[in-house]
Every structure is written in C-alpha cells, then in structure tokens.
C-alpha cells in the first residue's frame, strides 16, 4: 500500500505540474522579459557575461510551473547585471531587500567572508555597533558563500568579482522586513549578533523631516533625508537656508538618498546654486526604434531660484547616494562645488521607467535614459574629487563630514591648494 500511495502522489504531482505548465507559458514569459531588456534597457551592452547568464537561466525554466516561481527566478537573473535600478516585481515578504535602500552595510567578499568597509549612519547596523574593519562569517546561519549563491541562484565559481560583491551586500541586507543574524568577527573576538530588519530603521529615519540642518561654526550644513521624491523637500530646503541665516559656506550632504527621487524635486533645489539657467547633466534616451547610442544628446538645465547661493559650497556623496542623489551630486559639481567629498556612489544606472510584463503578471523597472555629467562622463563613472574610505571610521566618527569642514574652512581662508 505504501508503494501505491507513493506512486499515486508522484503521479498527482506530475499531473499538477503538467497542468500548470499548460496554463502558464514560461517560455513566452522569458522571451518577453528578454525582449523588453533588448528593446528598452540602455545598459544591456555593459553587462558582463550576459549571454552566458541568459543561457544558464533559460535552462532553469524547466523547473518553473507558475508565475511566482518565474518572478523569483527572474529577480535572481537580473541581479547578475549588478544594477540597483534594474528591478522586477511585484515584491513579497520572501524577497530580498531592494538595494541600496534596504542595505545598511557595505562589504566586500574576501577569502569567503564579508569584510565591512562602510556602515550607514543611524542604521540598524550602526546602532548595534558594526564598524568598518569588522568581518561577517555567516548570515542567518548560512556561510557567506551559500548566502551569495542563494541571492544569485548560481554557483560562486560562475560569478565575477563585481557580481559576488553585489550579491553579498544584498544578502547582508536580508529579506524584506525580516530580522538578520550575523556571526561577527572583531578585534575582540567572534560573537553572534541579531539585527532587526534594515527597513525598520530606515522607516524610523523618514520621520525626521525631509532635510536636516545645523550650523557648524560659521558653516551651514544641510543633509537630505531620503526624500528626493517628496515635493515638500523643495520648500524645506529653502526654509533651511533661511533658518541658517548668514554663513560663510555650505556643506550639502547627499549621503542618505538611496531611494532616489525625481527631477521635479532636484531641479528647483539646484536652482539655488546658479544665478542663470545652467546645465547640470546630459542624457540620451533609448526607445524601441532608437538605440541610446544613436539618440541625440540632450542637456538638462535648472532655473535660478531664491535665495541664491553665491558663497563656497561642498557636496558630500557616498555608497547610499543613489539615482537622483547621484544626479544632484554631478549637478552640484557642474554648478561650481569646490569639492565633492566621499566614496564612490551607489551606481543606480540611468533614468528609469516601469514596464508591464503581462505574460507573467509582473513589471520591470529599467534604465532607458543614459545619464552623463556635463563634461561628457557617464554618471556612473563620476567619483568624488576627494575620496574617503567611508561614512565612518572604525570608531564611528564621521570622517567625511570632518574632512569637508576642514577643506571648506581652508578654502574660505584662501588656501585653495589643499582641496585634493
């Protein structure tokens, strides 16, 4: 009887899977996804080993029988592009965080462990005391290698270094709204650490206002609080300028803009930094009929706004400067910042749009608009003029802000040669 029941169960499972396969056209859904990428994604040609990855994931379609499994597999496939702007949904509680919004640790993969290079200020990781220089050997009971392979759904040996590091930082962010467990290695030894979901601290931070500001001696400091998609940010920035009163220079902090925003917020703010209409970035748009390389290069301008800033200013950028935050950084550089201080940014590629994938009841967000600094560099190739190791040092000090204060004061005092 046991043999009969086992055989009947296997037959029933085979029959169910066969029926599902008939109702869901997985090959049609896969073709649609890749057609959309080829037609609309302006960064497809930059993807390392894309053809090999596509072939490897196409072979995995044999085990996909429903739309949710297809969405899960496609999300892993798109992570191989290492583009935080390239996302597929809808998302559920079992999905990994959207990077970098849900990330609070930036690490690199070395000798099968995670070496922490940076920690987001005021995040769950910061509050729990994780610092640059610490190492993480397990995530939620998994080895670092297993965690990376789970994110990417391929063996570690098939990944480039960039893909390994990208997957690692997603794994450290964990699943959406789910707590995380790390085995942390510090100078004091090894310990188990439990962190809340990264989004919990991020949501708490959002209650602090769209901009934060204070005086640092004779300087005005303004920090954007991940609200570059909130129209109130424009008025709040102007109010911050007025509240600070007379200062000798400004430090504009864009290190907490991982979720991006839109030009409707960015352009009016940038307008305070110019007395005339001025270019702050360039772009090319890919369409179904025109590849971005054949599209005309267009210039984005900002219009002057009051009060007009005609004193020295420095911009701060980092690994949680994303999308329009990156656009504002290159814009401030073009508009005359005496320096951009920080680390390489998050590299959210291009201006994005969302397209439906009706064969799988999904959607895809992708960069269809290639963005450039006004000097012609790709936005993703821009790096701060003064490179720092991270938002904080091993003791949690804000070394980037400290450096910016020093440089701006030196500039005001006429010692311009120190800006390097």
Automatic annotation (TrEMBL):
Source organism superkingdom: Bacteria
Gene Ontology terms describing biological process: proteolysis
Domain Tail specific protease: 219-380
GO terms for MF: serine-type peptidase activity
UniProt keyword Signal present: yes
Keywords (A to Z) from UniProt: Signal
Cross-referenced SUPFAM superfamilies: ClpP/crotonase, PDZ domain-like
InterPro entries named in the record: ClpP/crotonase-like_dom_sf, PDZ_sf, Tail-specific_protease
Signal sequence interval, chain numbering: 1-21
Any Pfam family the entry gives: Peptidase_S41
Lipoprotein as UniProt keyword: no
Protein name: Tail specific protease domain-containing protein
Record organism: Pseudoalteromonas peptidolytica F12-50-A1
């Amino acid at each position: 009887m046991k043999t009969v029941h086992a055989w009947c169960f296997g037959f029933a499972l085979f029959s169910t899977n066969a029926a599902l396969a008939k109702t869901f056209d997985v090959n049609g859904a896969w073709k649609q996804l890749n057609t959309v990428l080829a037609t609309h994604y302006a960064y497809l040609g930059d993807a390392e080993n894309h053809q090999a990855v596509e072939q490897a994931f196409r072979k995995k379609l044999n085990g996909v029988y429903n739309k949710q499994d297809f969405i899960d597999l496609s999300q892993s496939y798109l992570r191989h592009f290492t583009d935080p702007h390239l996302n597929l949904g809808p998302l559920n509680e079992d999905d990994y965080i959207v990077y970098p919004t849900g990330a609070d640790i930036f690490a690199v993969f070395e000798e099968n462990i995670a070496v922490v290079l940076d920690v987001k200020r005021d995040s769950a990781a910061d509050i729990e005391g994780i610092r640059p220089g610490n190492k993480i050997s397990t995530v939620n009971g998994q080895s670092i290698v297993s965690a990376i392979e789970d994110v990417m759904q391929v063996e570690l040996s098939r990944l480039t270094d960039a893909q390994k590091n990208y997957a690692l930082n997603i794994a450290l962010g964990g699943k959406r709204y789910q707590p995380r467990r790390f085995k942390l290695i510090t100078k004091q030894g090894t310990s188990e650490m439990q962190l809340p979901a990264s989004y919990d601290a991020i949501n708490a931070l959002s209650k602090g206002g769209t901009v934060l500001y204070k005086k640092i001696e004779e300087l005005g400091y303004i920090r954007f609080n991940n609200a570059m998609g909130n129209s109130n940010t424009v008025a709040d920035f102007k109010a911050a300028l007025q509240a600070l009163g007379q200062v000798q220079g400004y430090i504009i902090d864009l290190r907490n803009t991982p979720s991006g925003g839109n030009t409707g917020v960015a352009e009016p703010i940038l307008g305070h930094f110019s007395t005339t209409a001025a270019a702050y970035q360039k772009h090319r748009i890919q369409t179904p009929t025109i590849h971005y390389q054949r599209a005309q290069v267009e210039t984005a301008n900002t219009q002057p706004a009051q009060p007009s800033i005609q004193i020295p200013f420095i911009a701060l950028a980092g690994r949680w400067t994303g999308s329009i935050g990156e656009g504002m950084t290159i814009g401030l550089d073009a508009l005359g910042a005496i320096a951009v201080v920080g680390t390489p940014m998050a590299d959210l590629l291009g201006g994005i749009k969302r397209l439906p994938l009706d064969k799988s009841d999904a959607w895809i967000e992708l960069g269809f608009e290639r963005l450039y600094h006004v000097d012609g560099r790709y936005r993703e190739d821009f790096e701060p003029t003064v490179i720092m190791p991270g938002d904080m040092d091993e003791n949690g000090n804000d070394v980037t802000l400290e450096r910016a204060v020093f440089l701006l004061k030196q500039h005001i005092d006429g010692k311009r040669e120190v800006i390097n």
